Amino acid sequence: MPADKVLAGRIQDYFFRNQAITTKRMFGGLAFLWHGHLCVGVIGERIVARIGWEEYETALAQPHVSEFDFTGRPMRGWVVVEAEGIEEDEQLAEWLQRSLAFVEKLPPKSGYG
Description:
alpha+beta, 3 helices
């Protein structure tokens, strides 16, 4: 399912000043990467948020959140947030902050600075 352009635009606006963020087509949608690490993706009107193992169970307990199961096996540390859970800019910003906080702990990938 292609990325929702309005949602992708909201995320681009949020990351506007962060020069470490790049975009790439992935999962049939649009991915936002920090130094080469997937941070968050847009698939249709949903986001895939990479939050890590420590936040995983807490995130799954929240409304409109489910496991990310792209390959038939759920990916621990990644969640899908449905459109209802990111309607407000504050809701979306919270997920973007959580994802960025996780990937910022990772070393930059080779070739990404």
